[in-house]
DNA sequence: CGCTTTTGACCTGCGC
DNA sequence: GCGCAGGTCAAAAGCG
């Protein structure tokens, strides 16, 4: 845990992250190889815990794959920063912060937009997507960073139960 | 022709 | 109890 383990960090305690996310490195994701991300810790607890993982990319075309064994990412993306986010709500979801001009990032799945809402503290609307495949309880919300509009925060909720 | 997008309305939870 | 914010639904339209 020296130079390559800059990603590894301790789990931040549930302090007051009232309106600001705790910028801590995630211990749930590990950078393996060149373009592959895998869950370093127990993926089960990763889903069960009320912890969201925030990943900052600088590329738009990022293919994400949420499998049982972990999360696999493809695409020519250079990692900027990885941080864990603790939510107040106990819900299994991952938040990915991506630097992109477009909110619609192709992650290999087909999404159906079912809502758009304006966030109070942000000048940009939030988009609500859901997996087009029936039986897939996966939801996805996409909104821009209120501080940096050039960043797109994609929050996945649930797990895909179908291939691709 | 099927499916996605769109936009407003509706519902629910929480705070005051 | 009311109001606000966030989230979801649904009808109509648009596009491939």
TrEMBL record:
The question of whether Nucleus is a record keyword is answered with: yes
Where primarily located? nucleus
Query: What cellular component terms from Gene Ontology apply here?
Result: nucleus
Provide the alphabetized UniProt keywords. DNA-binding, Nucleus, Transcription, Transcription regulation
> Where is it localised?
Nucleus
Q: State one molecular function term (GO).
A: sequence-specific DNA binding
Q: Where is the WRKY domain?
A: 100-164
For this protein, the record's InterPro entries field holds:
WRKY_dom, WRKY_dom_sf, WRKY_plant
- Recorded superkingdom: Eukaryota
Q: What is this protein called?
A: WRKY domain-containing protein
């Amino acid at each position: 845990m020296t130079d390559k383990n800059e990603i590894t960090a301790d789990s931040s305690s549930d302090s007051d992250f009232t309106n600001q996310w705790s910028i801590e490195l995630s211990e749930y994701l590990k950078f393996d190889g060149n373009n592959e991300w895998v869950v370093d810790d127990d993926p089960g607890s990763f889903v069960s815990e009320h912890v969201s993982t925030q990943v900052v990319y600088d590329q738009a075309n990022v293919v994400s794959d949420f499998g049982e064994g972990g999360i696999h990412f493809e695409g020519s993306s250079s990692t900027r920063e990885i941080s864990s986010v603790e939510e107040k709500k106990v819900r299994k979801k991952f938040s990915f912060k991506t630097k992109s001009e477009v909110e619609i990032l192709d992650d290999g799945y087909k999404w159906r937009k079912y809502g758009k809402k304006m966030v109070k503290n942000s000048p940009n609307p939030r988009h609500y997507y859901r997996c087009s495949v029936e039986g897939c309880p996966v939801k996805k919300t996409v909104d821009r960073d209120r501080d940096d509009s050039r960043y797109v925060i994609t929050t996945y909720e649930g797990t895909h139960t179908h291939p691709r």
